[in-house]
Amino acid sequence: MARMRRELHLLSAALKHSVPFSSPRYIGHMASDLLLPGLIAQMTALPYNPNNVVDEAAPVTVDMEIDAGLQLARMLGMPADETRCPSAFGHLTSGGSVANYESLWLLRAVRFFPLAVRAAAQRCGCDFDCGDRPLSALDDWALFNLPLDQAIALRAACETHLAADADRSRAEALAQAIEAERIETLGVAEFCARHPKCLPPVVIVPVTAHYSWDKAMKLLGLGTANLWRIATRGMRLDPAALDAALARAHFEQRPVLCVVGVLGTTEFGTIDPIHRIVAARQHWQARGLNFGIHIDAAWGGYLASIFRAEDGSLRSHEQVRADFRYFPSHEVYDAFAALGDADSVTVDPHKLGYLPYGAGALVCRDHRVFDFVAQDAPYAFSAPAAPTAHDPRARFRALGRYILEGSKSGAAAAAVYVTHRTLPLDHRHFGRLQRESLLATEYFFDRVRTLADAVADVARLILPFEPDSNLVCIAINPLGNSSLARMNDFTERIYGHLKVDRQQPVQTRQFFGSSTRLSRAALGGTDSQRILSALGIDPATFCDRPGVDERSADSMLILRHTLMNPWLRDAPAGTNYLDLYCDYLAGLIRSELRGGVSPPASGTPPPAT
Ligand SMILES: *Cc1c(COP(=O)(O)O)cnc(C)c1O
């Protein structure tokens, strides 16, 4: 007991060195103060230690997780009535990365399934109807490019056929042959060898995509060489670049597993034109090229609550616009309005859901895609319960049978569910919180321009991209400097006062920010030129390779701010932390240019704990 007490005291003391995410002085990464309903729900559920892998280990919280998935689906504009088919299905993950991996895992299973059925049917001497044609009349290219709902319908047709066959051993042989021909059974290499027309599939992402997409390609054995990164404009997916990539895939007959749109890029908060990805699919589908659409909304997903009325309908652009100064642009509105057309969406409750780690989520528009990956485990999952009108979710209570992860926290599910019940995901409830952070962003956006004027005699300070969400980047260059390397050194020194490092107690910091680097490849020519000229940097010092000379650099360091805290503009004591921050930054710029060491104090220091 004494040792435990001692260790707990030490822990409690050591944790004082943690990052004060809850402070309005924290505007660094995607973390902020936590919502009490979620935090308390999580702590309440934690001692029961429910395991949401299966309801046998979590009779209460598994249903909460399924409900939370439907709540998210409704916010995104997907069909969320589980008594109807198709209906969406969503579940929690440990984070956005895993949700992204799972989206590819599911799409691969569904889209390659028809090829396995045809191979197996050939082997067993039978045939199925696939849409209006027999399966045997379709080649591998056509089968891979079936729309998702046709692949799902084909699986249903197989099941009906297998169940109706009076010759049980023949049915059993066919079922086994289908399993034997699947890409999950054969592995990617053998599957491609047996289907030479189906070269390794590609996944198309914008250059701004999160690094988890590289990991996903490695993990699934698809290969990062088959991750096609396409150009952006202003850090938003460029529809012309997407069209060119699809034209190339069509020409080379490369199967496109999926196109990923990012709703709120991790580094810049910019929002891809999701509606244009949906339009591209319509265009190319008519030419025989089809692809899944996954939206990585790990960051921006919850902003969709602003766009939903209480009855679940989509609010008009004018209605949304009325609450803001700038938000949302037409493109941003259309992007949110198109979310319901995606096949799957990643959303992180532990980011803009203001909930504890680890809570990510994957929501799929059609719950039947999960049947393609069902995994038996006799000790854990009994024979799946068939859905009934009375209990449509019955089989999904064996959650671990259908998802990538195994044992998982039921306490996290309780946190998400209770939060969504307390603050429903519409503009009058959860949306109010999101509105606060967007209004803070608009305030900051305007305030940074005054800041730029205030330091104009010593530095050029610009916003490299107009923000689409509550994430704002700033680039700073001392006046008279034209070397990118020197600009980076200067920004590094400024950032040195804003970051968490082990040398300095967090309590001595005035503010916390974050930073990121823009590479030339990611920026593209037009955006590079625009930003460099606004900063007065010689374009010749922005190189593709590092270390060309001491004036040059291969990336541009910029400050990054995530404005999540609802008390940034009008904290209870009347403090405006964004004003304080801008004054502090102006002081830092001046003192660093004087070669100063001590940052000027601003306002009251942060609280000691
Ligand atoms: C944060 C983020 C991820 C990864 O989510 P984790 O919860 O950190 O695993 C993926 N994509 C985007 C766009 C993100 O912002």
Write the layout of secondary structure elements.
Layout: H1 2-14, H2 36-45, H3 61-76, E1 89-93, H4 96-124, E2 129-130, E3 133-134, H5 140-144, H6 148-164, H7 168-181, H8 183-186, H9 188-194, E4 202-206, H10 212-219, E5 227-230, E6 232-233, E7 236-237, H11 239-252, E8 256-262, H12 274-285, E9 292-297, H13 317-321, H14 330-337, E10 344-347, E11 360-364, H15 410-422, H16 430-454, E12 459-462, E13 471-478, H17 484-496, E14 514-519, H18 520-535, E15 555-562, H19 577-593
Parallel strand pairs: 4-5, 4-8, 8-9, 9-10
Antiparallel strand pairs: 1-11, 2-3, 6-7, 10-11, 12-13, 13-15, 14-15
Helix pairs in contact: 2-15, 3-15, 4-6, 4-7, 4-10, 11-12, 16-19
Written overview of the protein:
By secondary structure, the chain is of the alpha/beta class. The chain has helices at 2-14, 36-45, 61-76, 96-124, 140-144, 148-164, 168-181, 183-186, 188-194, 212-219, 239-252, 274-285, 317-321, 330-337, 410-422, 430-454, 484-496, 520-535, 577-593, and strands spanning 89-93, 129-130, 133-134, 202-206, 227-230, 232-233, 236-237, 256-262, 292-297, 344-347, 360-364, 459-462, 471-478, 514-519, 555-562. The protein is built from 19 helices and 15 strands. The strands form four sheets. Strands 1-11-10-9-8-4-5 form a seven-stranded mixed β-sheet, with helices on both faces. The chain starts with a helix and ends in a 16-residue tail after the last helix. The mean pLDDT is 93. Bound molecules: pyridoxal-5'-phosphate. Residues 95-97, 100, 210, 212, 262, 266, 296, 298-299, 348, 360 line the site of pyridoxal-5'-phosphate (PLP).
